[in-house]
What we know:
The chain is of the alpha/beta class. The protein is 45% helix and 9% strand. The longest helix has 40 residues, at 2-41.
Amino acid sequence: xxxxxxxxxxxxxxxxxxxxxxxxxxxxxxxxxxxxxxxxxxxxxxxxxxxxxxxxxxxxxxxxxxxxxxxxxxxxxxxxxxxxxxxxxxxxxxxxxxxxxxxxxxxxxxxxxxxxxxxxxxxxxxxxxxxxxxxxxxxxxxxxxxxxxxxxxxxxxxxxxxxxxxxxxxxxxxxxxxxxxxxxxxxxxxxxxxxxxxxxxxxxxxxxxxxxxxxxxxxxxxxxxxxxxxxxxxxxxxxxxxxxxxxxxxxxxxxxxxxxxxxxxxxxxxxxxxxxxxxxxxxxxxxxxxxxxxxxxxxxxxxxxxxxxxxxxxxxxxxxxxxxxxxxxxxxxxxxxxxxxxxxxxxxxxxxxxxxxxxxxxxxxxxxxxxxxxxxxxxxxxxxxxxxxxxxxxxxxxxxxxxxxxxxxxxxxxxxxxxxxxxxxxxxxxxxxxxxxxxxxxxxxxxxxxxxx
Length: 453
């Protein structure tokens, strides 16, 4: 009997040890899975999404009834600048026979002329006041600077605008921007482009940027987001604030409330659309809308990981969010408000449910905290359900960061924020970005009215 008990105790001990081993293994695999997910969302994540498919789909549209309308380049509406003729050959190129003319057809080409730089010599009058004896010199509106002497040879306003747009708008490095400009027939160094952009951000673009900041703080709704950045190899944070009219970017030392309020004031009282980052909660005078897309993504991932009864909580949360999004199509504000109240009650009931799963506990805690801010889009007209404005504002900067890695100095970071804000806002309103930057370099302070008009 004692030997039997000893055998059973040994078996229990062995199984207990195996259970401990399995639990440790499960914990490690769950941690590895979570780290893999987090790594895929980090700013430094590689472009690769895994090994290519052994049987990839063919590119382009597929044949069949759903192929759709074939696209083609439209014939230019403006009259042609020149006419060329392609006559028939005298003899058939295959057999040498006589050719009979049937008809004429037209082909159109749109091209750019050979680009040649325009060199302008500006004669600047220099004199002295009879009374105070101070030196006075003339200024032409085409001048981008009053510098003379060693700095008398400069680039013009359009070239300056092209250089800024290539770097801050298209993400080319300063060296590559200089290479592109060399094909236009202009020799300019990367350092010259950098200094010219810094001068613009410290002079002619300052009043425009200040007006953009004031417009954002007066707006009825604003979306904020943040992403990693680097200045001189050290970690910094890229912040954005955007809506239908304005896009603002700035580089801050950290991810704190003080960094956020350096542009969007702490007393902002509009609707703040944001993700779940806790710093945004400190905008106490604002009405909040927490991004529903983040919740849907999180619950979908949890549904894929969990099994059995544990899946019910993320599934229920996902259903509540989807029902709220569907309620946007309700015809009247009263119906949408009623739907918001119903979804809020359902969410509160869900958050009160007990659960033994750690992932579900974290989800319910997050939903309980964000619950009052999840359905503002149903009660306030013009509010988005997601923070897509912020995501779209961050994306060009992130693409640029992958090209040149960030900024080398704090001055470069400040220039990055100001120029990017002006370019993004001008593009949002369909303006000629290069033309606008050139006009800023020529004449003082055309102001925000031109940018947003």
